[in-house]
Each structure stands twice: as C-alpha cells, then as structure tokens.
Design goal:
3 domains; five-stranded parallel beta sheet; Rossmann fold; Alpha-Beta Plaits; Beta-Lactamase; 42% helix; 9 helices; alpha/beta
Length: 432
C-alpha cells in the first residue's frame, strides 16, 4: 500500500462553505473558498468544483445525507454534540462549536483535507488493483507468446498509462532465441531498439531480466520482467500514470506479464508437435474431450477424421528420414490451409494425423475430408533436388449422442481408415 497522501498545500486547498443567508463565512487567507447559501447550490458546487473540504455552518440535518461519499466535511454548530452520533458515517470529519478559534478551525480543515486526499489515493489504488485482477484473468487464458505480447501489452498500457499512450515490450524466450519486440500505439511497428529513444534503450539494457527493478524516464517507466519459462525482458510504458508510491505495483505488473509469457512458451512447447506445428497427441486428446463435452451439453454433433499417408515407408526408404520430414511438414501445412477455422488439427504420431471437427456431422465432415484428400494429392515438394508427392487415406466417424469417450471415437475413425486402406488407399471412408 502506498504511503499516506499529503494534504493539499494552503495555496491549492479548496473549501466550499455552506452558510445560511445573512451569516458571514469565516475568512481564509491563502485558501480558495466559495460560499453558497442553499442546499441545491452546495450540491451543484460539489459536482462542479470537487473541493477538498466542505465547511457547514449550522446546517439543517436534512443536508447531511447529501454529503455522503463527497469527501470530508467540517461542521460548526451552536450545539456541540452531533445528532445521535451518526453524522460521521455521512462523511463528516469533525463537529466543532460555533465559538471555535481560528487556529482550531484551520487545523481541523487541514486534517479533513488530508483525509480526503488519502481516500482518493486509496480509491485509485483499489481501482488499479481491480483492473489488474481483470487483466490477470484475461492473461491466464492466452496460450501463445504472440497473444500475450499483443493483447497483454495493450492491457498493461491501458492499466498504467494515460489514454492514447504507447508502450513496448522486449523479450527473449530462451538463451538461444533472438530478441522479440512488440509495441502498441505509436510503437506498433516496433522491430528493434532503433525504434526506441536512446535513453529508453539504455534503461531497457539495465533492467532486462531484472524483475522488480523499475526506472523512470521523465513521464515514462521501464520495468524488468522475468518468468519461470526462461522469459526475460523489459516493459516500457509512455505517459505512465503510476505515482512513485506505486512502484511496487509496477513490479507486480511486470511479474504478471513475465509469468503469462512463460506459461505461453511452456504451453507452446508442450502442446505442439515440433516438426509440423500442429497440436501434439496428448493435447489433441484434451481438446477432443472439451469438444465432446460441449457437444453433449448443447446437442451439437462432433466428427473426427483419421488421416494416414499412403506408402509413407517407401518415402523414408527412398529419401531418408529428412525427406520424410519434408513430406510431413508439407502435408501439415496443407491440412492447416484446407481446414475451417473451427477445426482442430493434431499430429497423431508417425504419418498419422487427427482432425477434430466441432459442430459438424459426418456428412459435412466427409466433404471436408474429400477436399483434404484432393489437396494432399496435389501437393508437391522436393528434397535434395528430387520431387516428393504423397496420397492419403481418411476415415471419418461421428460421435454418438452424449458421447464423452474420445478414445472410442478415434478408434471408430481408425477402423474406417483401415477400410480405406483395404479398399485401395487414396480415398475417404465413413464409419457405419
């Protein structure tokens, strides 16, 4: 929590005075004071002027509830005792006798101004923390480093800076990786440190990989980030609205950013097949379980396709495993380019691929499978100057109503695949 906010100085302290008509308000040398004589006038003044303190001279009890949440008020009254002791819950800071001394009144108003400033600082801190929790929730759902750097950076700039500000992040995902740059606002096209001001580049170098270290450059901040997945870097935000008392919050923000990046890197490495870039088998089964659960809940069909490259052993025998890798990577690209945005492609193992098709019945899936078969047959590649081509056999199976067993569904698609193999290959067969 930030230290207590100081009260406004005498030169900047604003006091709204409500006094009955015909009465003289106190004199405040060096303070800016405005006087009103009606309850409606006081409410309008509070809305327009936002004073630090409201001074009420013998107010009607009906006026007090309108001050709730308006900051600190000081009441002067002939009857020293507050009515029933409840007014302090209505934003009244002090209740003074009408025969107060000038020094007593000035000290009380300073105390009330300090309380108002502390409340404003607390509200701001709470608002930032609330927005940060919302951003943390969003960040936890981002699964790729690209999503984190793009969407997360936008969120952090909005959290820490004035509207329309720019920001940048510079990260390295592992010791062997080059630096990655991303920017928002005027820095959206950021490609290298040449796009950043020299003082910022120097600050980035100092805080890079140093979590909790924060440097200020005029109205901007640079803070080091790190995470458990090897992520290290620096976050730069222009026109930062982060008071110096909030520097600890800047470290928390950087830690959250680094953790989200690290999780995304680890997810990408564990969930994707290195050669093809498709989902790996384990995560593919996880996604199939999610899709089946959705289909069972909303009565939506789910169909899977099992693909197996024909005579792939001959490709490896003739071109070696490097040539086989060229074929696998090329076929994976064809699959990604042919499928719909909602379909999920998985490297099942060896030369086998699985395609998960949410909200798709077997008849519609058969049409997509045929497009895949034709596109793969048309693909051409090369290894060491020698041409490469391949065909594919595909089996399709639709989930039964309320089916949740992904392994059983894949097994039925696998049976259909082997029917396609026995029938001569390079064809699509649907499970009966």
């Amino acid at each position: 929590m930030s230290p207590a906010a100081p009260a406004p100085s005498a030169a900047h302290l604003r006091v709204a005075i409500h006094v009955q008509a015909g009465r003289q308000p106190p004199e405040f040398s060096g303070w800016e004071a405005r006087t009103v004589h009606t309850a409606d006038g006081l409410v309008a003044l509070l809305d327009e002027w936002d004073p630090e303190v409201v001074l009420l001279i013998e107010p009607a009890p009906s006026l007090l509830p309108s001050l709730y949440g308006r900051g600190a008020a000081v009441v002067l009254a002939s009857d020293v005792a507050p009515p029933e002791g409840v007014v302090f819950g209505l934003g009244v800071h002090a209740w003074l006798p009408a025969n107060h001394t000038p020094s007593q009144l000035r000290a009380t108003i300073h105390s009330a101004a300090r309380r108002t400033a502390e409340r404003a600082e607390l509200r701001r801190h709470q608002e930032v923390l609330h927005r940060m929790l919302g951003l943390a929730s969003t960040m936890s759902s981002l699964r790729t480093p690209e999503e984190v750097t793009e969407h997360g950076l936008i969120g952090f700039v909005e959290l820490l800076a004035a509207r329309g500000s720019a920001g940048a992040v510079v990260v390295r995902f592992s010791a062997a990786d080059p630096l990655h740059y991303a920017g928002v606002g005027s820095l959206r096209g950021l490609q290298s440190d040449l796009d950043l001001p020299v003082p910022v580049v120097e600050a980035v170098a100092r805080v890079f990989g140093a979590p909790e270290r924060l440097e200020r450059i005029e109205d901007a901040i640079v803070v080091g980030i790190a995470g458990n997945g090897g992520t290290a870097g620096a976050l730069y935000v222009e026109k930062a609205e982060l008071p110096s008392a909030f520097d600890d919050l800047g470290a928390v923000v950087a830690g959250l950013f680094g953790q989200a990046l690290s999780n995304a890197v680890l997810f990408q490495r564990s969930a994707h097949d290195t050669l093809t870039g498709l989902y790996a088998r384990g995560f593919g089964l996880h996604r199939l379980g999610e899709v089946l659960a959705f289909g069972a809940r909303y009565a939506a069909p789910t169909t899977v396709l099992m693909l197996d490259l024909d005579h792939f052993k001959l490709v490896n025998d003739e071109h070696g495993h490097p040539g086989g890798d060229v074929v696998l990577a090329g076929v994976a690209r064809v699959i990604q380019q042919t499928l719909r945005a909602t379909d999920i492609a998985v490297r099942w193992g060896g030369e086998e691929f699985l395609v998960i098709m949410p909200r798709t019945d077997q008849a519609a899936a058969a049409g997509v499978a045929e497009r895949l078969r034709v596109a793969i047959a048309a693909w051409r590649g090369a290894h060491e100057g020698r041409p490469l081509a391949v065909t594919v056999s595909i089996g399709a199976a639709e989930a039964d109503d309320n089916e949740r067993d992904g392994a059983a569904l894949v097994s039925r698609a696998d049976d259909a695949l082997y029917e396609a193999k026995r029938a001569g290959r390079d064809r699509v067969v649907c499970a009966g």
